[in-house]
Amino acid sequence: MKPVILDVDTGLDDACALLLAARHPELDLKAVTCVGGNVGLDDVVVNTLTVLEAAGRTDVPVARGAALPLLQPVRAAPHVHGVDGLGNLDWPRSSRTPGPGHAVELLRDVLRDAAATGELVTLIPLAPMTNIALLLRTYPDAAAGLREIVFMGGAAGIGNATASAEFNIWTDPEAAAIVLAAAAELGVPVTMYGLDVFYDVVITLDQARSLGDSPSAELARRLIEKRSELYQSDGASIGDGGAVCAVIDPAGLTTQPFPLRVELSGTWSRGRTIVDTRDWSSDLTNDPHGPSPAVVQVATAVDGKRYADLWLSAVK
Ligand code: BDR
Ligand code: CA
What we know:
The chain has twelve helices and eleven strands. The protein has 316 residues and is α/β, with parallel strands linked by helices. The protein has one domain: Ribonucleoside hydrolase-like (Inosine-uridine Nucleoside N-ribohydrolase, Chain A, Alpha-Beta Complex), CATH 3.90.245.10. Helix 4 packs across helix 5 (130-138) and helix 5 (130-138) crosses helix 7. The longest helix is centred in the C-terminal third of the chain and has 17 residues, at 215-231. The protein starts with a strand and ends with a helix.
């Protein structure tokens, strides 16, 4: 089994990812850490516990993390995720409470254990990377427990929060820049599962309605119905769930290594991920114009059907 940790701001699409990570037999979900983003931190925590409960995984440790980005206010997205972040589905909310420690401490502890045992963990951030930046700045030794980071965020093409920037990076650009720099320095491989592939793993309403009647299947159906309603189509992408698919089945994802920078200023471009696809960009590891950028595996294409089937088979 592959040990993984999810860092989330649940959210309808992180709910799709959580269901998969909690139920797939090849993943060992070590912990889930929460951060403010799509909704405020209190709702993120309840939503995360609620989804894990539907998945039958009340054993998974959950911790509260940063409520706010490093430098700016959080700007939630109730127009996408509903006021409660779970699409106002009227799904029974978990009464479980998260663990007493901070997310950064839970991440540190799990990763130090992993470093000690040699069973390295894949970290899957699906949200603003505030918790991860705080972790790598506070306890850089914890990086020794990381096999890799596969994050949902950014875009080589257009953004969604703005024309330039994808929501997770736009919410906390400094955190993303810190994580990329720290990962490069500490030798942790990074994959960016960005908007270029985000919408390409689609579940049809018919597929969602054939899932069955377990609590997990029922929630999965409701999530897809809600997202279909939002996008006014007869199906919906599993969004961040695709990043979890990429960890389970990397062969379904096409990636290319590119230098990657995060725009930290700019009137209209703050939070943009600048993917340097120029032919000679590999030379930028010795960039004369400034600090060398991190080189990241950027997802350029995904086998949508393969990942949709993977998701359907796990969440039912
Ligand atoms: C992102 O949008 C948010 O709704 C999702 O949680 C995902 O992380 C894509 O920008
Ligand atoms: Ca998210």
